Every structure is written in C-alpha cells, then in structure tokens.
Amino acid sequence: MIKREPKSYWALATFLIFFVLVAKGQMAEKAKPVIENGEAQVVEAFSDPSKWIRHDLWVETEFDSDGDGELDRMHVDVTRPEQTESEGLKLPVIYESSPYYAGTAGLGKGIFWDVQHELGEPGKPRKHPNVTRVGERPIISNSQVRTWVPRGYIVVHSSSPGTGLSDGAPTVGGDNESLAPKAIIDWLNGRVKGYTERDGDKEVKAYWSTGKVGMTGTSYNGTIPLAAATTGVEGLEAIIPIAPNTSYYHYYRSNGLVRSPGGYLGEDIDVLYDFIHSGDESKRARNNRVVRDTEMKNGQDRITGDYNDFWAGRDYLNDMKPMKAALLMSHGFNDWNVMPEHSYRIYKKAKEMGLPVQIFYHQNGHGGPPPISMMNRWFTRYLYGVENGVESEPKAWIVRENDKKDNPTPYADYPNPDAKDIQLYLSAGAPAQGKLTTSKPKKQGTETLVDNYSFSGSSLAKAETTEHRLLYTTAPLKEDVHISGVPKIKIKLASSKPAANLSVWLVSLPWTEALNTKITDNIITRGWADPQNHSSLTESEPLVPNNFYEIEFELMPDDQIIPKGQQIGLMIFSSDKEFTLWPEPGTELTVDLDGTMLTLPIVGGKL
C-alpha cells in the first residue's frame, strides 16, 4: 500500500521549491544601468572600486609623428565594472585624453620668453626644460572614474602623442592631436587594432564597449574632445569641453598682437611644447629639432603677430565641417587664461551647423564644469539614447553673479535674444575722466596717452588722473544694466612710433578693493589689438607716425549685470603689464574722440 503524505506536506514542499527558484532567479539577475528622470543613476553593483577591472594597452594610429618609420601607438587605460567581464555587460565610454598625465616641466625661471623688449624685435633666447616622466602602469589617470563608473559607464584615458608612454611628437594643436583620439574611438568600435604592449603583436579588443563614446576634460584636456570631434569619427556621440583652447592663435595672439595668456606672461606655443614633452627620451631630440626648432620657430612669428598658415592649422574653427557630435560647452566669463571667446566661437559655429548644442557659462575664472546633473543628462541622452528632452531645453545656462555654480539661470540662447546693440560715444576729459554717452557730441578733438608698462591695468583704472590711459565713464546707472554678448570697439588713433600695443578694458566703477570683492566687481571685459593690423589680420604694416588709422575689434564675450549706482568705464591704454610685451615707455597714442565708438549689447537696449 502506498503511504500518502498529508496535504500540508505538499503545500510546504511546493512553497520551498518556489522560494528556492525565486532566490536563484534573484541571484542570477544581472547588474545593469539604471536611468531615472533622464539621468544615469549610481548603481551599487558598479560602485566598489576594488572590483573594477583596470588595464592598459596601446592603440595603433594612422600617423608616424616621431619619424621612426613605425605608426605611432597611443597609451590607453581602461576602468570598467567587473560585470563587463563576468556577465558580458556592454557599456558606453567616457573618454578623457591629455598631454599632462605623465608630468610636466614645471614653471622654472627662464623657460618663458622675455617680454621686455621693443615691438618688432626678437626676445632673448629662453631655456628649454626637460620633463621627468611620472606614473606607473596600468593607471594613466584616475580622473572621471569615481563619477562615471558607478553610473554605468566605462572610463578610458589616453596620453596624447609624445607624452607619457604614447609614441609620437607633441605638436600642440597639430593634426596628430586630432587623429590620436580618433584612433582610440575607432578601437572602441572595433575598427583599428590595440595591443597589450607598445611594440608587441598580441591584440586587445574592446568587446565590452557599445561603441558609444563621450569625451570631456578641462583646458588642454577640453581641447582634445573638440579636436577628436572635428575628424567626424563615428561613435563619438557627445563632447563636453570645459574651458577649451579652440585656437592657439587666439590663445597666444589677439587681433595681431603678441599677447600672453593670463598668469603666464611670456608663454608661447613652443613653451607649451617643452612643458608637455614627457614622451620617449630617445625620440625627444628629433622631435625638438623637427617640431619646436623648425615648424614652431618658423611659424609662430613673435615679430608681427600676424595670422598665418601655421596658426590656421591650429584653429579648430577651420576644421569643423565633419563634426557630428552633440556639444555642451562650459566656460568662465572671467577666464583670462583661456578666454571666453574660445568656447563662444565654436558654440556659434556648431549651432549654425545644426548640431545639438548647449552652453554653460559661469562668472569665475579658468575651469569649472557644468553641474553634474547637466553633464549626466547630456551623456545619458547621447550615449544611452534616452529621450530625456535635452534638445528642447534652453540653449544657454548662465550662473548669475551671486548664485552658486550648480544653480545656473536658463536663457533661450547666448547672447540673450533680448540684447540689442547700443552705441556709446566719447567726450573729452583727460587726464581725468571723460564721458561715455549714447548721444554723440560734436567736435571733441583728440586726447593723448603715454605708454608705460610699469603701471598695471588695475592701477590705471583706479587712478583719478594719469597720462598713461584715457578713461570715459557713463553717469551712475539708474537701473541694473544687463550686458549679454560681444562688445565691439572702433578706435581712430595715431601712434608716435611705427608700432604700439593697444589695450582696452571695460570696467565697473568705482573700483572695489574690499576683502570680499567678487571677481565680477571691477573688470567687465577686455580686449587687445595691434594697430599695425588695422587693415588685415594676415598682413601687418608699420604705422606712419602721427597718421590716424581706424581699428575695429571685439572684446571678450560677457554676460554680466552691472548694478545700479555703478558707472561703466571704457579705458584705453597701450601696454598691458600682465598680457603684452613691455616696450620702452614713452610711445604716445592719440585718440580721435569723434572717430571712436563703443558698441555694447544690452538686454532691453537701454542704458
């Protein structure tokens, strides 16, 4: 006889079997990215650094920039969640490239050009430092990894040509600096080969990559995403350049004038070359001879400051036609190192090309990324393909003067669509202050300043009277004035010598020197130009002393609210101690007030 178990026994057994099956199912559930509110969320399974897989490799490029007869290979590192190995998970990539990862030459005495000499004369020879390479395999950099790996991305770094363990020569904006990141993106998409060693033949494949790549970085590291995007490489879906140098001419020259980046007086493109040249020691002498001492020496032209083929080849605006990547730009309006024009000129062109664009501007200096949420939405949209609506959001996000950087104000575009150009004219007042008005006075004649580099721009702006600048101010503002866009200046002037520096500052007065002074309190914006380039940026000509010339140029873009009670001041002077060459004092610049005009883009069109 068959013994039958009670019904309760079978119920319990069924429950236990069901429980085990559910538990096994839960255990077998694979980790995957989580998207909420249009953003990739931190996933616990991706967040333990001890479980991340980290390795390096070399990707073969299409160029031989160190002249050794072999195609250059770029050193690459990878940081990825362990699930890309254990569970076959494929993820998109956040990629940053840099010439700085393996160390730099530092800022030792004598490596910059001596700026104390007459215009049109060569400076004294400078010192050439050597870089001692740092870092150990397999980690090139730890940047980006703690932000993006937990959110379901793989992070990749590469050392740019001629730096670190990458082959090649640094060219500071040359073609190889665009083609190098292109090669890494091609490798991530299976189109070119990667190897376990610099000179080996064992291949490495990016089987864990979806092929969707986003790039970001700050300063030079922000330039490289743009460089890569100008190649039109398939797979580079979005870039977020932060304070990028988009033209080495605009970095080291200004409207024909030899002009240093703020904080680095006497720097030029060959100085930056020496600063980053951390690559193979056996290749450095050849690279120096071919790149620095030939191409750069013949092309950079510290004598005239003219725009030429050398500089045109290092201006990414000229290379944008193939670009397809969505662009989120970030910059500071008070960045006097890589000035705010760098981002605006590229944003403007990308918008004209119909690319997805946004721009984030803050009021501080060099660097400063957009809020992480903004970056996250951008990458989620274009790397994960999530329709989160970023295309329909306002194009411009600007941090107002008293707000925190993570709380930008949205605007339809930049410049503000409600801004209208108004013209301001000059009334005599030297050596004190003249007037700046919207009505054009008659027959104001001329006023003269005497160049003297030993006086800083700030000291000239604060001075009640001085012969070393001309200053014209509005009446105290009755209401706040919102400037948004690119101010322009037309100056009619004569020089007592065949060459002269020309510097223009727009300032907010009275000048503030309190301990809690904000970066926006005094200098509104600035600009520089070479009067010898009054007719052409590519061909300068000596000035005929005491002949008048008309010069028109743009100041740096800005978006700033000048509070009521302040005065807007236009200051015209010659040598700018922090930025220009220092010729012997005494050059006289005479300004024809009737032929000089400032154009300001003002929201509402009223001053």
Number of strands: 29
**How do the strands of the widest beta sheet line up side by side?**
8-7-3-4-6-5-9-10-13-14-15-16
| Helical residue percent band | 10-25%
Which blocks of ≥5 consecutive residues have pLDDT under 50?
1-7, 9-26
Average pLDDT level: 95
- Structural class by SSE content: alpha+beta
User: Which strand-content bin applies to the residues?
Assistant: 25-35%
Q: Please compute the radius of gyration using only Cα atoms.
A: 28 Å
Q: Roughly how many Å apart are the termini? A: 107 Å
Main sheet properties = 12 strands, mixed
List the helices and strands and how they pair.
Layout: H1 7-28, E1 35-36, E2 39-40, E3 53-60, E4 73-80, H2 83-86, E5 91-98, H3 145-148, E6 154-159, H4 176-188, E7 194-195, E8 203-204, E9 209-218, H5 220-229, E10 236-242, H6 248-252, E11 253-254, E12 257-258, H7 269-276, H8 281-299, H9 309-312, E13 326-332, H10 341-352, E14 357-362, H11 372-383, E15 396-398, E16 409-411, E17 419-427, E18 433-437, E19 446-450, H12 457-462, E20 470-473, E21 481-485, E22 488-495, E23 502-509, E24 523-529, E25 548-554, E26 558-562, E27 567-573, E28 588-592, E29 597-603
Parallel strand pairs: 5-6, 5-9, 9-10, 10-13, 13-14, 14-15, 18-20
Antiparallel strand pairs: 1-2, 3-4, 3-7, 4-6, 7-8, 11-12, 15-16, 17-18, 17-29, 19-28, 20-27, 21-26, 22-25, 22-28, 22-29, 23-24, 23-27
Helix pairs in contact: 4-5, 7-8
